[in-house]
């Protein structure tokens, strides 16, 4: 089973989108940053999708500080290609941030790439 946590200003919207898009066997939970760090470190969650107004700072600030930059990637206002997302997943990225107004574009790409690996 794959567990995806959502956080930030659009956490409920992202969680709803993941639930619509993900196949059976993917668990989704709305979280806050501190709980997400604990769950990711303990192996009780696999990925975190965070949102803020710009996708560049608050979406992942706490997670970058506590998990380390090697595990995190912020898309900011850019829309990643499927190839870019797969490269990031290959590099071990598990924590992603993006702008809340791009939930409808970025969430499907992330969920598709994540669930293709499950």
TrEMBL record:
Protein name, entry field: DUF2620 domain-containing protein
InterPro entries tied to this protein: DUF2620 (IPR021238)
Origin superkingdom: Bacteria
Organism: Streptomyces rimosus subsp. rimosus
Pfam families for this protein: DUF2620 (PF10941)
